[in-house]
Structure formats: structure tokens, C-alpha cells
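tool=predict chain=A
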Amino acid sequence: MGACLALVLVALVLSSAAALAQDIVRVQLKWTHQFQFAGLYAALAQGYYRDAGIDLRILEGGPEVDPVGVVTAGGAEFGIGNSSLVIDRTAGAPILVVAPIFQHSPFVILTRTEAGLDGPRDLVGRRLALEAHSAEVEAYLKTSGVPPGSITVVPHTGNAVGLFAEGVDAISAYTTTEPFDLLVAGVPFQMWSPREIGIDFYGDTLFVDARFAAARPETVRAVREATLRGWAYALRHTGEIIELIQRQYAPGMSRQKLEFEANDIRRLMLSDIVDIGYGSGTRWRHIADVFAEAGMMPPDASLAGLVFEERPPGQPLWPYVSLAAAVTLLVAAALVAHRFYRISRELRAQIEARRRLEEELTLLARTDELTRLPNRRHFLSVAAAQLEACRAVGTGFAVVVFDIDHFKAINDTHGHAAGDLVLAAVAAAGRAAAPATAVLARTGGEEFAAALPVDTPGGPMAVAERLRAAVSRLEIDVGGGVLVRTTASFGLADGAAASLDALLSQADRAMYVAKRAGGDRIEQAGEPEPVERTAV
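tool=predict ok
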């Protein structure tokens, strides 16, 4: 018994010693958990910090959290900031830049399309939601000629859709997140970027308390290297890190949103062009000059000591000086050629990235996230165009509306995850059964619709029957070996003389007749309502 007790005590001592061997280091994020901080999550998950003897603690941020204030007050050793770190440093904050993560800043201004704004100067007298750490946006406004104090600044909640719904005219935003939220919500907006007037700053940047760095330089180097390794891993294994974020850091965030964010961050980091974490003294000088011209920091302020380390320690300067003197002309020629090559490559990469982003934005605006079918907005647009085309050539047109029978019972019995599986399966079956000329969409909840340009009177009913049969044959595995069978109620309305709204209304009423009759059937509406025409 005594031997067992001794072994337990030894194990406890050893585990305590191992814990003490790890340096507890905190890093304050500037926003809530999302792919924006994927490098930290990846490095933690892969054990890069642990291998370096560091017990890293990640502190979540938000719209009103000031990472510089937290770090300088002793609440964390490291933080994620942005290019306004140069202002804080000049103002006396004891901080050092460790590594820029984003080579380009994602900061933009988003405005409501219906607000009728054409440029920053139009914000005079309007309301702007500005987050706490957006000095870059302030510099953009001042450089654009917006008079100080001429804009009503309101608190930024982080909810772009909600702010626009409350009548806020414009918001500061990241290209990586808020555009996605507005697109999914169907809120029209326009985007203004500081880069349009030459303000091209670093984005997210790892920084450290200068007092901590002076006392623990090796720890700072270890955190820097582990973080950059983490970012390299996150960019190579994006899907894996998205699953990690959903599982551990932001369970409520959709995969589609995280994928959108990851794609835009890849564009901002330019990791295929420059090393992750690369920083330039010349670039920091440009950033400081822009802030100075905007009246946000003293002109010609010294940037000495801003960066933690510009080169690894212990390397003497004289070999670099001698080498540079010996090959000045050769290096100059090579640098010019290399610079043009890099600029050309970067421009090509940016053009391609912008094209991909525009394609992705367009797809997101048109597509239902769960079923990958067109959403209601896109369906109405395409169906209206099809109806006009059918009228022009004198062919028939029909719409089919169908609703999954007893869907609430499926959710109540098996859970919403099972309901999502049923929706996806019905969408796939409908897509396979519908003709190529049809437009099939999820129009909301468990309801779907199809637009059918037809050439023969019996065509629409035959298509509706194929859709009904395809749904009724489904056996959906919702987990645990449970198979769910489902049916749907269908309403059909046709007639190219009717308006699209009238046809959908008729089909919807017919569908409810089918549902009240027990479901798994098709009801056809009566004569279509004529299109109202204005007398000339």
C-alpha cells in the first residue's frame, strides 16, 4: 500500500513539473473566433507551441476589444493588431511588431445600396458603424477629404445585417466576412476599399509586449515560428482546420462561411509570392506617412525599435555590407528584373483571385446553402425571364410547387440534422428527375418549386409526376441505421398568359389542397388569372 502511494505521489510531482516547464503565454485576438486566426488554432492543434515549451492560451476578441490596451495592461503577452500598431507605438505604447500575417488589409467600408452613396465624401451627415480598432478606415476617410466630425459614428456590433436593418448607412468591415453575411441575407451593398486611393497597409499582425520581449526574447521567437508554421499548415489543410474551428472554437458558424473567409484570406496573405510573416521597413514607413498625412500621428516619427527582430540575432552586419558593395550593379539589375517579375505575378494572382471571389460571391447570392439548389431570389429572377421568353415565342409555361409531407414530425422525431439530410436528399432526387429545361429551387423551409417551359399540354403534369415518384421512392439514412421515407404534396399551375406571381399563388393553393387530401399527390390549379395590363 505504501509503495502504491509513493508511486502516485511521484506521478503527481512529475506531472506538476511538466506543467511548470511550459511557459503560459496569452494572445489576445482582435475579433471573435473564425478562420481569421486559423494559424493559431492549427499551431495549437499540431503541438507546435507545446513542442517549443509554450502553453498558449487564446483570448477571444470582439468589436469593442482593443488588443493593444489588453496587452499593455498586462492582460496578455501577445496580441493580433493591424497597421495602427505604428500609431500606438509612436504614442508610447510598449509594443513591438513580431510578424505581419496579412500582406494586404481586408478593411473596407460597406454601404447600403439604397442609401445612394457614391463615395466617402457622401458619408457627411450620415451614420457610420466603426469598430474600435479601425484607424485605417479613419485615415481613408480623412485622405478622401471627409471633414473631421462630419460623420455620426455609432458602435459597431459586428452584425452587418442588423446594422443595415437599423438604418445605419455604412459600416467598417473585413472583405473576409461581412460581404458573405450580406449576400446570404440578400441585402444589396457596395464596397469601398482604401486601396483604391493607394492606402495599402498590412492586415492582421502579431505583436508583443515590449517588456516581455526584452525579458523573454527566446519565447517571442518560439511563438513567432510556431504561429507561422501554424498558418502554413492551415493554408495546406484548410478543410481540416475549418472542421476544427466548427468543433472547438465557433460551433455555430457554417462551413460555407468559413470557406469563403479562408479563400479571401489566402488572397490577402499572398503566401505563394512572399513568405508568411514577411515585413518590410519601407512598407511600415509608408504606413506611418499615410497616418501622418491624415493627422493621426506626428510627421517623420521615428520607427526605430518598432519591429521585434528584422533579422535573426547573432549575425554580424559586415558580411552583408561587403557583399553588397562587391556586387552592387549585378544585384541592382537582378532586383529590377525580380521586382517586375513579382509585380507581374502578384497582379496576375490578384486578378485571378478577384475573378474567383466575384464568381463565389455570385454563386453564394444565388444558391441555397444546404441543398445547393437555386434560392428563392434567383428562382424568381430566372422564372420571370423564362415566362417572358415563352410568351414571346408562344409556348406554354408552368410552375410546380411542392412541400415535404409531415416534415415537422421528422424534425421532432429524429432531430434537425435528420431534417437537413431529408432536404438534401429530396433536392438531389428532384434534380435528377427534372428535365434540363426546368429550374428547380428550394424556396424556403421544406418547400421547393420548379419552372417548366413546355411545348405540349401534357408536359407539366408528366414532370410533376416524375418529381412525385422520385421523392416517394426515397429511403434516407438519418444515422443509427434509421431509414426515413417521405412523400411530398404538389401543386401545378400553367398558362403563359398569367403573371409569375399569379401562377405561383395558384400552384401554392393547389399544393395545400393536395396536402389536405393526405399528401403524396398532385393537384392542378384551375384557369390562370390574366396578367393585369395598364391601358394606354
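The chain has four domains: 18-103+202-313, 107-197, 316-366, 376-524. The chain has 20 helices and 17 strands.
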